[in-house]
Amino acid sequence: MPPEEIKQSLRQIAAEAAELKAVSGGALTDMIADWVAPQYVVAARDQLANAADAEERWKVLRMVTNDLAALRRGDNSAARLQLDREEFEWQRANRKSQKEQEFREWILRPEVQEEFFPERTGGLSSETMAKIERELRLL
To answer: How do residues 1-24 score in pLDDT, each as one tens digit?
Structure first.
């Protein structure tokens, strides 16, 4: 297949996937899982009911248990991923707050004040201003 046809096919697949996602209102795999789970339960129940003997019933139960374990691993992985995302967001917010605090402390250092706000240096000190106000009885 020529590259241009491959690109066109991929564009079409992407458009169809976007449309399906919009129709389902969320992740397509979640919707399918919600549909498949009850189907699986019914099929497993039928397999158990049709089992000829205890050995065949045991095989069906082991198969169902293995499938369930695989599904639970997937659920656990998804939950772990969500926790990791939440922790990342928390750390990002915490780092931002910490950087802001460090900046506030840095900007108050006298050498920084002197370098970046030279107009604030000089003039009358607060002690001198208080003395003038007392002498002139302004307050």
So the answer is: 788 988 898 899 888 888 877 887
- CA distances, 46 to each of 49, 82, 119 (Å): 5, 36, 86
**Model pTM score:** 0.49
For the chain, domain boundaries: 51-135
| Spatial separation of the C-alpha atoms in residues 5 and 107, rounded to whole Å | 60
The whole-angstrom separation of Cα 122 and Cα 113 is 12
Burial class from Cβ neighbours inside 10 Å (0-12, 13-18, 19+) for residue 44 reads: middle
**Distance, CA of 100 to CA of 88 (rounded, Å):** 18
CB atoms within 10 A of CB 83: 10
Class of residue 33 by CB neighbours under 10 A (exposed 0-12, middle 13-18, buried 19+): middle
Contacts of 47 (CB under 8 A, 6+ apart): 60
